[in-house]
Amino acid sequence: MSPPVRTKKHLGQHFLTDMAIAERIAQSLTATDTRDVLEVGPGTGALTRHLLQRTDINLYAIEVDAEATSYLRQQFPELAPRLVHGSFLRVDLPQLLHGKFCLIGNFPYNISSQIFFKVLEHKNSVPEVVCMLQREVAVRLAEKPGSRAYGILSVLLQAYYNIEYLFTVDEHVFAPPPKVKSAVVRLTRNSVQSLCCNEALFRQVVKTTFNQRRKALRNSLKPLLGEATASHPLLAMRPEQLGVAEFVELTNVVEKVRSGGSG
Fold it and tell me: Are residues 81 and 103 in the same domain?
């Protein structure tokens, strides 16, 4: 069976054709906390074949395209019982994999952020993520405070994961070639079990402030604070100046003010 032809169903996927890079990505996964690994969007199986060669992991895969799924089942019959035809964004992960599992894949450019938000929902079950994605997004994930690239995903992911930018991937190793460079990053779950704040409010504070990132926090937080006033020094800053710890502190200030206290 010939490799599947790329269609709109692939959601922006560009297939990796350089096997040396595929092997390098596969070997970047340490899988130290669990043997179970889920590959997202295996496509034509460039990365899959190298992952299946690793005897230290149990590989699962989920592919949204029916033609690609059929091709993978014929090419890799040993994977077929653990290959799911469906969307990663919609699958019930606890039902598919019991306990902890690592995540790996060449993430489609236009849904990579949504994949990471789902990872955050299951952060206590996902100790490691290795992925290739648009370089701009990869830089943003690993960026530190003070940069224009630093944003919502930077804060939310760095709250729970250590993020390493591993290497850059050029356009010519894909079919069809994307218009931008890609990069491979590794996320490793840190030791944080609780942020010592209301974590739902923490996410809301981060998203609200970065949605108006040019404003001082005192102004961008008005949707959450209403007419309440607060005088905390952090409120004079802008969101890109705050690290995770400062956002935790800011969240506690917002919660205190909203409950009638003074910030």
Answer: yes
